[in-house]
Amino acid sequence: MEIIAYGVLANEKPLLQEAFDQAFGSRHELRCLEPFLNRDTAPTAAGHQVVLSSVNDTLDAEVLHDLAKGGTQMIAQRATGYNNIDLAAAQEHRLTVARVSYYSPHSVAEFAWALALAVNRRIVRAVHRTREFDFRLDGLMGRDLHGRVVGVVGTGKIGTVFTRIAHGFGMRLLGWDIAPNPDCLALGMEYVPRERLFAESDLVSLHVPLVPDTYHLVDAKALALMKKEALLINSSRGGLVDTDALLTALRAGHLSGVGLDVYEEEAGVFFLDKSLEVMTDERLARLMTFPNVLVTSHQAYFTRDAVGQIAETTVRNIEDYFADRTSENTLVHPGLG
């Protein structure tokens, strides 16, 4: 049987193929495609029982209908997030849907700190200058993080690793989540209401999933509460931040720096080469004009360790499907619900 994968990155392909070969040998073949799965590419999945999707694929009701009509029975999402999948439509079409519920939390937490440090110390601007032999320090002044307040929004696996690193910097720890995490409490974290976290933090880092309750969690009200010199880091999901509100705050000189590894309209842009095209997304283009904003292309998870774990878990999800088993990774199964 041939299994088809969409949105496969060049560095991801050998790790996915290795995990696939180890699990299935010659029993199944893997076909990796660079294009994302959407309404235009869905017909190419016809005849494939199992489809591997990526985080920026579009799996709405129309796409799922076309997949089911073409014979697809199982979708394995190569990511933790699944806000791009219409689960109700998947249930209606009796599709099995699984995700990767866990991979190295260090990959994302470490990258979030890389963004925070780069924004705070103006690293990218400094490198651009020195490449042109401009060695002035004007405009490059940052702040010590030691002794300052970090607000961690979401203290799950990734948030906890981020908190441990903050503890190593000697920062005061504030947290917000639906329930306190004992590991974070042991580090001295104080759980506070969201409004207080935004108001008191010198650095706010987002580590919650994108669900209806967290959509635009950082809106105009939240941004107004934040200190003028605060840093905002988002390495989770773009929809957590209201981009229009963020642009308004930045134009007003609010926030010392912003690091974004995700963007709410990143689908169709991130992971692609748009350098020879006109950027039609005006909000993204405007974000790029601010010298205190860094935007990266959803790469926080992109380490060999994490991508390898994602590939291995994806293969296990396929094995579970063939054995008619469910696991903590199963989102939709015809026998459930």
UniProtKB/TrEMBL annotation:
TM helices/strands, residue ranges: none
Keywords from the named record: NAD, Oxidoreductase
Gene3D superfamilies: NAD(P)-binding Rossmann-like Domain
Occurrences of domain D-isomer specific 2-hydroxyacid dehydrogenase catalytic (ranges): 15-330
Pfam families: 2-Hacid_dh, 2-Hacid_dh_C
EC top class, as a word: oxidoreductase
An example molecular function term from Gene Ontology annotations: D-lactate dehydrogenase (NAD+) activity
Signal peptide stretch: none
Enzyme Commission number(s): 1.1.1.28
InterPro entries per the UniProt record, alphabetical: D-isomer_2_OHA_DH_cat_dom, D-isomer_DH_CS1, D-isomer_DH_NAD-bd, D-LDH-like, NAD(P)-bd_dom_sf
Residues covered by the D-isomer specific 2-hydroxyacid dehydrogenase NAD-binding domain: 114-300
Family: Belongs to the D-isomer specific 2-hydroxyacid dehydrogenase family.
Name used for this protein in its record: 2-hydroxyacid dehydrogenase
